[in-house]
Amino acid sequence: MPIPQTLIDSIAGVKGFNQEAFVAVHEGGEQVTSVRFNPLKTAQPAGLPLADKVPWSSQGYYLTERPAFIFDPRIHAGVYYVQEASSMFLEQALTQSIDCSKPLRVLDCCAAPGGKTTLLQSLISAGSLLVSNEVIKTRAAILEENCIKWGASNIIVTNTDPATLGRLEHFFDVIVVDAPCSGSGLFRREPEAIQEWSEQNVQLCHQRQQRILADIVPALKPGGMLIYSTCSYSREEDEDIADWLMDSFEFDSLPLHTDPHWGIVEVQSDRHKAFGYRFFPDQVKGEGFFISCFRRQEGHTATVKPPKRSLLQKLSKNDTAIVQPWLQTAIPVQLWKQKDMLFAFPAALEKDLLTIVDNLYVKQAGTALGKIAGNDLVPDHALALSTLVNEAIVAVSLKKDEAIQYLRKEEVTIPTMPRGWTLVQYEGHNLGWIKVLPNRINNYYPANWRILKAYN
Ligand code: SAM
Prior knowledge:
- The structure is a single chain.
- The chain is α+β, with helices and mostly antiparallel strands.
- The protein contains 13 helices and 23 strands.
- Helix 4 (90-97) runs parallel beside helix 5 (115-123) and helix 8 (199-216) packs parallel to helix 9.
- The protein is globular, with a radius of gyration of 23 Å.
- The mean pLDDT is 96.
- Bound molecules: S-adenosylmethionine.
């Protein structure tokens, strides 16, 4: 399906737009595939058909071809994330605008399926808080899954609307709004989406983007950073939103440095000359994208106080003694209990945790550890995938076919193993738990995550 003429006409005057090259690159249909490695899980990117690095990313690589990712056990272990290359430019927006070595409170407001969240987590310090929110319930479940696979303990996944988040007045140092949009930037990758594009939808998206931003800006600290992005080419969703933000709030626009070889076009909005960065697929090795950074002007800062009483309890000495052998001791975490579920969260972020739990609907905070049954822990899947799990726990290494059987939640056969809870690994990366019983092995891979697609 051809690119709509109305879209072409509406962006014809945008700086850097080259109609002929733009149409040709969509007709050519080249597929660009890129992945970003998880520094928590691997120091040495390998095992994929790697081509060049994505130049604006420290952990992103292009691939020479698109493998069947679903059948690579390492993706289920959170070793890497398949992410469109232009989106990885968020790294530049963040690192050029704020000191990431400091402890920060970061909010990813529209976060599912988790591409920007996992990127943000890799960039901020271990003492920083990342609240990753998705308003749509089913999408929040996918976000939670991807965060668990990533394995960090400083993420809180929430499922709420931006207006509720906005009640955390001046709480965050950084807010990322990767806004729902008309999606024209992905037309090369998803040509079937072209038929859903309309000028009317662009207008609806523009209004929704304003609503989300108006709701969320109160949660940004004076002096804090707002990073706004879309995968739309339409000015109504990009430069016009930048102008509206500058009209409506006390923001300064921030220019970013880009290397001319990257092919990214710096633009400025009509009225306030706010800086934006446009990615055209005929000029960058990536899909269509727009990003713009704003600093909220300094001023009086409100403080959200943690609640005096919380639904969360610190773990008793008894329960701590049961859990401790499962954990690495080097990482300073506080152990918590909510109802019967235990979880770990960075000790230094205790007040932040209590504040978030008190104000928002939390799907997952930190690393779920499991439940206590008698004098034992029934370990949670998240513990297996986290950096907290004790490396001394018995583990079994599976070959690829066996690992896929495990990920399909089928029966796993291992000749001789000590009884009890055992980690299942593939190429040194944890995939989950099995329990070895006298006469069988139970597969504890989460049923709703299992691979359903036929493998041959
Ligand atoms: N940041 C994600 C990533 O990098 O993987 C992609 C986010 S996608 C562009 C926009 C998200 O906004 C979607 O997950 C969508 O469900 C969510 N969304 C839709 N309507 C929304 C609304 N009214 N308020 C907040 N988020 C909304």
